[in-house]
Specification:
- The chain contains 3 helices and no strands.
- By secondary structure, it is mostly helical.
- Helix 1 packs across helix 2 and helix 2 crosses helix 3.
């Protein structure tokens, strides 16, 4: 079951575009799936980083570093 509502993704797409193009349900669904997968991967990496530093609380720095690691890897 998806965690992010399609309406939220549709709003993101519409916010990114400057004019009133239509957006297909398939496009909204695909972007939602990609963002959920990416978010899950970043969260998993952030938890690994937290555990590696013997942390008990996931913090902003863990998320930032994890995002940099995941996104850099995907762009290579």
């Amino acid at each position: 079951m998806p965690e992010i509502a399609l309406a939220s993704i549709d709003r993101l797409i519409r916010k990114a575009q400057q004019n009133a193009h239509t957006v297909s349900l398939q496009a909204v669904t695909k972007l939602r799936d990609i963002l959920e997968n990416l978010g899950t991967e970043i969260a998993q990496k952030a938890i690994e980083l937290m555990l590696a530093r013997d942390g008990k609380r996931l913090n902003e720095d863990d998320i930032i570093l994890a995002a940099k690691m995941v996104l850099k890897r995907d762009t290579l």
